[in-house]
Amino acid sequence: MGSLRVLKLTAVMTIGLLLGACTYQQSLRHPKLPPLVPIDRTMDCRQIDLAIDRADTVRWLIRDDGGSLETSGHKAARYAGNAILTPIIGGPLPMYIDDGGHTVLSAADERIRELLLLKRNRGCPPRATTLPGTDDLALLVELEVVRVQLDAGHGEQGELFRQRTKLLDGLRVVPPSRSTSP
Question: CB–CB of 104/26 below 8 Å?
């Protein structure tokens, strides 16, 4: 009976290590950025751009550590895996299957979107992005299209998350070009 338990434990630990090697490995604890609060809505254009830059920096830290968005199917599988593995090893998992940074990345994405909305509503000037021919307010329009599709359940969720990630990865503000004339 004892060898069966050892065999089960070895199998579970092997699976856990394999799954753990493929998951989000944060190098530091990332903050979950909060949604905008009433005081945030009093910012001027310069402050909004600064808040966007700060949220984007947090977002890039998460992305650099391997953070990614998780579809509802992946989330259900992760919950099932955590629920099944815990009883098999006979106690709480020392290293459960985490969400791959989905929660903190999604919160950062949403805060950036809210800040871009505030920027547009305030009539602030757009800033260039790394996406050719797309400024940050044009990027917001594309983000809104993806959000509407996600909210309505149209399209494949994973592909829509990839589109959203690609758009926000391109937000990185490009410094204004400097004139080289004498």
Answer: no
The predicted-structure confidence for 113-160, as pLDDT tens digits, reads as follows 999 999 999 999 999 999 999 999 999 999 999 999 999 989 898 899
The residue to which tokens 């945030």 are assigned = 40
pTM of the predicted protein model: 0.70
Tokens (6 digits) for 17: 């290590």
List of residues 6+ apart from 67 with CB closer than 8 A: 24, 26, 30, 100, 101, 102, 104, 105
Q: Distance (Å, rounded) from C-alpha 90 to C-alpha 152?
A: 41
Give the three-state DSSP class for 33. Answer: coil
**Burial class, 80, CB count within 10 angstroms (exposed 0-12 / middle 13-18 / buried 19+):** exposed
- 135 has which bridge partners? 128
**3-state SS assignment for residue 135:** strand
CB neighbours of residue 114 within 10 Å: 18
CA distance 118 to 98: 32
Between 116 and 74, whose confidence is greater?
Answer: 116
C-alpha dihedral sign at 147, 153, 154, 155:
positive
What is the Cα Rg of the chain in Å?
21
* pLDDT band of 22, cuts 50, 70, 90: very low
